[in-house]
Amino acid sequence: MSEYDQLKFQSFGSGRCVLVFLHGFPLNSKSLINNFEPYFGESQQFTRVYIDLPGMGKSRNVLSDDYDQTVEMIVKLLQVLFSNRQLIVIGNSYGCYLGIGLLKSSLNISGLFLIAPMLIPDKDRRNVEHLEHALVTFREDSDEYQAFSSTNCFLTKEKFNLFKDVIDTPMRENQSRYLARFEKNSYAFVKNNIEITGDVPICIIAGLYDNIVGYKDSKKYAQQHENVNIKVINNAGHNILIDRPECVVSSFRDFLRNIPSR
C-alpha cells in the first residue's frame, strides 16, 4: 500500500495509460480489486491505481470537510504521481460521483466507466427501483444476510460470502461519526445534483432492480448528453459487481477498446 499526503492507494501494472479506480461508500478498494485485477492478470498494458477514499479503508484517518476537498485530494495525488498521463476513471456508486467531479480539473481524462452511479446525493430525490430476487438458493438468520438480501438479486452462498468480504466487513470497519455525518449531509455536496461536463466518453452500467440509486436518473443523463451511454443490466441490483460481475467486466473490456490512446 502506497500513499500520497496520507491518502492510501494500491497500484498494479506499468502502462502509460492510468486507470483510476474509486470505490463506493463506505467501503474500500477491495471490491474493485477483486473484480478487475483477475481480468488484467499479469498484463502491464495499463497502470491501475486503486485509491482508498478519505475516511475509508487504509485512508480511514484522512478526513475531508466536503465534496470539493475530497475531489481536490484525488486531483493532487494524480497530478503529482501521473502528471500529463492519460487517465481513465472507473467509479462505483459514490466513486462515480467523485469521478464526474474530476472532469472539471486539468487532468488528462479520456473516459469514465461508471458502475451503479450515485448521481443524486439526496436519497429522497432519487428514482429507485423495487428489488426483485432472480435466484434464491441460500438463507440465513443474521444481520449480514438481511443486508445482503435487501440489495442483491442472486442470493447464493457464494455471493453471500463475497458480500460479507467486500461490502459488509468494510462497512463495519469504516463506521465512524465522521462518515455518518458526511452521509447525512448528502455527502457534503452543496448542490442538488451533479453536472456532467466536457465531451469525454462516459459509459454507465446500471442495475434494473437497483433500490439504492436506481437507473432512471442515469438514463436521464444519458439522454441529455451525447457522450454518455448507458447499459441497464437485467437481474442486477445496486451491487452489480456481485450480482452480474461478468456483464460489468465484458462492458468494461469493450469500453477500453474504444478509448483512443493519447
Automatic annotation (TrEMBL):
Any one GO molecular-function label of the UniProt entry: hydrolase activity
Transmembrane segments: none
Domain AB hydrolase-1: 18-245
Signal peptide: none
Superkingdom: Bacteria
Keyword annotations of the record: Hydrolase
UniProt entry tagged with the keyword Hydrolase: yes
SUPFAM superfamilies per the UniProt record, alphabetical: alpha/beta-Hydrolases
PANTHER family: HYDROLASE, PUTATIVE (AFU_ORTHOLOGUE AFUA_4G13070)-RELATED, MONOACYLGLYCEROL LIPASE
Record-given protein name: Alpha/beta superfamily hydrolase
